[in-house]
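Q: Convert this sequence to structure tokens.
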Amino acid sequence: MQKQIRKKKVAVLLHNIRSVHNVGSIFRTADALGVNKIYLSGYTPAPLDRFNRPRKDITKVALGAEKIVAWEHTKDPIVLIRKLKESHQIIALEQTENSVDYKKVKVLYPVLFIIGNEVEGVEKSILKLCDIIAEIPMRGKLARNRLPDDVGKESLNVSVAFGIALSRIVNI
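A:
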């Protein structure tokens, strides 16, 4: 049985993701969700090292998805986003004053999802180019039985957030 190719074009930009484990996990989830292409920028590690050899640390987590999902490294994410903006809806996954609940996002295809650094998030210069900034509300902050100074976690692991948001937004 042949794998069906997603008719709705979905691309992802991973910018300044530092963890090889997060990158491998995102590749594996991207394969499951039918993502057409992953762009890597900044210091995001690629599935191949500088000598064009497979990185065992990414392969260990991606389990072969890095060979299935098309990917490329781009030197300048701003140039890439401006180019794709002509034909793609641009959506960042980030928490900002203007972000909307990811469950309310209406996608226009083709679409580029942007995922940023695990600690700093998506850079402001990139957010300015986005059509939508989506966030996953953190309900733990509102949970009962919390101590007054225990505010709960502000965000999820980047690969977990990627899987949750994209699986809902792209309506598998």
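Residues 112 and 131 are 10 Å apart (CA to CA).
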